[in-house]
# Entry
Amino acid sequence: MYDIRGLNEECGVFGIWNHPDAAELTYMALHSLQHRGQEGAGIVCSNGENIFGARGMGLLPEAISQIQLDSLTGYTNAIGHVRYATTGASELSNVQPFIFKHSKGDLGLAHNGNLTNARQIRLALEDGGSIFQTSSDSEVLGHLLLKARSMNEQANLKAALNMIKGAFAFLVLRKNSLSAALDNQGVRPLMLGMIDGAYCIASETCAFNTIGASYIRDIRPGEVLTFTNEGIDEDNYSQYRDSKLCSMEYVYFARPDSEFNRQSVYNVRKALGEQLAKEMNIEADVVIGVPDSSLQAAMGFSQYSGIPNEQGLLKSRYVGRTFITPNQEMRERAVRMKHAPIRDVIEGRRVIVIDDSIVRGTTSKYIVKALRNAGAKEVHMGISSPPLKHPCYYGIDVSTHAELIAAYQSVDDIRAEIDVDSLSYLSVEGMHDVYRRHGSHGECDACFTGDYPVEIVDYLLPEEKEKKTKGV
Ligand code: SF4
# Structure
């Protein structure tokens, strides 16, 4: 199977403690996080006595029926998850939240991100007799919690969080508590909110807007919050470090009505477009954005350059994620279905088309062809992020260099391949400049630079692993 879009989001989580409509609010919040994962969804609830849930494959309405949702009515605590598979097969057993049934107490678990030492820990746990039910990396935390010998749940959770490495936002629901933890570099986003006096937690603040909750703050790297009927316990399992939030959250993943670090994604995305215009300096008649995620960057580009911004591409609202066989003709048709040029905007004009990224180059190539077919005199492409040259091991589905055109081709080769008159990417410095102006502490940029902020144990070459084992 072949995904024409390339980059895909890496799951979304939501949790709420002590609200009479916990399941319904979780369902609505997951709906607003659907852009982060469309392969499966689930909700797990607790009421002080039982842990119970519903989950299924596909978009939220397909995954959880009204009857299933009704069966969760009355539970006051809930966690939910929308899934895009970055590790583990796309099958029901891997759809979260997971429920662990155990004599020490049942628990529900939802995870956004990717553990970079999950394989190593899993092998050790299996050697010790643990039996895994899924192929997902997320299951590792559940086993570590159940293996712990202490009766102090909080201490066990902190010890387990210190054993795992990678990018993660975890929600752990027990009968009498809900815990939320973020990796100690803050690569994945996690937000704290409140509705009707009840605390809630979400991957993005757009979930709070949807349910009418207020946005309190971002969860800090290495932080673990626990909610009980007594209130909130704010603790750290690891020493605080500056956040290394994923750069691509601003560029592409997050919804523009979300905020990170109190900065609107909409504004940051526009500023990335402005910065690109400063660096690109091309004359043209019109600037258009590839819908939806590049529309704000195109707006910012236009405001800085003075080149009018128009809607030159129309995105079909009814085409979801498009998986097709790797057949050129069918791929082209699928992109045509998704992005239709508006001839009146394009014909006879020098067009700058702004996109947020180029992964394999497939989509860009077909968009350029469509613009030329619609009569564009010149087509220039501006990318509002630097070239994607390195795999992401932190929860985005690009895990090999072979999937990234910029990993093995120069900008000029890519320009020729996708057939544009010019191709410009935003510089790494320019991107960080924008983030700095918006209160950043230094976002993760590993897929552009190869500088990975979190150790990638499972992915090291055998000789590097050996060196680490020997302590070299
Ligand atoms: S490597 Fe890239 S996509 Fe992955 S977390 Fe870092 S910035 Fe985000």
